[in-house]
Amino acid sequence: MTMEDTLLQRFGPLLSIAQLASVLHRSPDGLRISLRATNEWSQRINKARLKIGRRVYFRTSQIAKALSDESLY
User: Fold this and answer.
1) What's the structural domain count of the chain?
2) DSSP alpha helices (H): ranges in the chain?
């Protein structure tokens, strides 16, 4: 089972900021601060961002690809 399959099964196609924070073992506020930075990691995560009304979600499949990309580490 791939990371994408695991995340999709656990959270569905969209992750809220709180769910993404739990996946990354961060607080939601800490994650918000990190995503405002201008580095490669935050740019990759922000590409998966989707705003629906006032709520912010992240596409699970793109998050899984960003997390499994070893060139970032």
Assistant:
1) 1
2) 3-11, 17-23, 28-35, 40-47, 60-68
